[in-house]
Amino acid sequence: MRVLVVEDFEVLARTIGTGLRREGMAVDVVLNGDDALARLAGTRYDVVVLDRDLPGTSGDEVCRDIAAGGSGSRVLMLTAAGTVRDRVEGLSLGADDYLAKPFDFTELVARVRALGRRSAPAVPPILRAEDLMLDPSRRTAFRGGRRLELTPKEFALLECLLAAGDRVVSAEELLERVWDEAADPFTTAVKTTVRRLRAKLGEPPVIETIREGGYRIGVPR
Length: 221
Hints:
By secondary structure, this protein is α/β, with parallel strands linked by helices. It has 2 domains: 2-117, Rossmann fold (3-Layer(aba) Sandwich); 127-217, Winged helix-like DNA-binding domain superfamily/Winged helix DNA-binding domain (Arc Repressor Mutant, subunit A, Orthogonal Bundle), CATH 1.10.10.10. The protein is built from 8 helices and 11 strands. It is elongated and about 55 Å long.
């Protein structure tokens, strides 16, 4: 899941970003509405966590732009004002959900995940291939009945490949969907994570490398 956090209070913005990354999400963080619009123009985000009370270009304006653009990005609006009127105003701007500050981080994660499921193409609640099973909601994966102990990046990469079905997923797409703005486009992170994941999955191999194409789930012949 690719998430953009837009919050002008830098400590809170970085805290949210760090917390969501620990939940296996790829997160970019900006501190104002102008930078948010610039990021949204070049990157497709599943969810935008958007502070309503931004200096300069307001959260309301950013929300309107997202709704008008038809990108499919879902908006979770944050604000210090939590009255019914404020919630109605926020939702009328095109926000998909509304969370008043202060909030419990576990609730924020749950709402982001729920919005992410709505923004993504419909996939089965349980992803399977051969004897491999992954449950995105419970964050568990098994092969042959054996539970796999995966890092957040390994889990997210495997989820991305399973959700793609027979489609080949390029290293560039994996870098964009699983990592975030801090990732070096020339990094070997994808290759290294695939190698570690293959070792944990065991034999026979289920991640196939397509030369000059990328990766897909399928037993090589």
